[in-house]
Amino acid sequence: RELDLPSGVQASVHDGVASLQGSADASWIASAKTHAARVVGLVALDTSLLRANADPDAALQAEWRRLAAAVPDMRVHFVRELDVRDVQELQPLVAAVQRLAVLAPQLQRRLTLTCRGHNDEPGTATTNRGLRERRARWLCDQLRDAGIAAALLRTDDGDAANRPMIDARAASLGLDAAPAEGE
User: Fold this and answer.
1) Dihedral Cα 173, 176, 177, 181, nearest 10 deg
2) What local confidence, expressed as pLDDT, does residue 177 receive?
3) Cβ atoms of 76 and 170 closer than 8 Å
């Protein structure tokens, strides 16, 4: 009784050893071991027959990590200016972002996406900065048109000095997926 057993866990005590069996959250199991040390009369706690419940969010967390790692590497390439080389490049990026937008509230995460434009070498610094900004705005527009909330999107200012150079005519996303406050 002093261990405050959750439903699904049974206990028996023999010669000062509490034996637990059943299933419980992993966090409860860990805290039970610490708490048992303070229970008068207990000399040991046997949890060999106790199983940790599967984390209900484990699959969602794994999907989140996979998408969050993949999105920054996805690109939409351009032939010149805003002429898309292959519109099919946009579809997996949009699908990944749509899924992240669904997962974020389920996993209590704040999601911010930064649309970035990239350029290759030719052109002046001013011309290339403007081109990066237009490509970034284009990508944000495409994501908004696909149903991504504007509040999740921001446009990069085109300042290449703050990020690595990409030698390609492309647009990509930066991802900020911080845990929600208090986590």
Assistant:
1) -150
2) 75
3) yes
Strand partners, 109: 179
CB atoms within 10 A of CB 143: 23
**Is 175 within 8 Å of 64 (Cβ atoms)?**
no
Closest Cα partner for 75 from 138, 117, 111? Answer: 117
Cα dist from 98 to 91, 123, 176, whole Å: 10, 34, 15
- The DSSP element (H or E) to which 101 belongs, if any, is helix 90-106
What is the spatial distance between Cα 42 and Cα 60, in angstroms, rounded to a whole number? 39
Q: Read off the pLDDT of each residue in 149-157 and give the average, rounded to a whole number.
A: 91
Q: Are 91 and 62 in contact (CB under 8 A)?
A: no
Residue with tokens 């010669």: 15
pTM for this model (two decimals): 0.68
Structure tokens, 183 = 């986590």
Is 51 or 55 the better-scoring residue by pLDDT? Answer: 51
Note whether 173 and 139 are within 8 A (CB).
yes
Whole-angstrom Cα distance, residue 77 to residue 53?
45
pLDDT tens digits, 58-106: 788 889 999 999 999 999 999 988 999 998 999 999 999 999 999 999 9
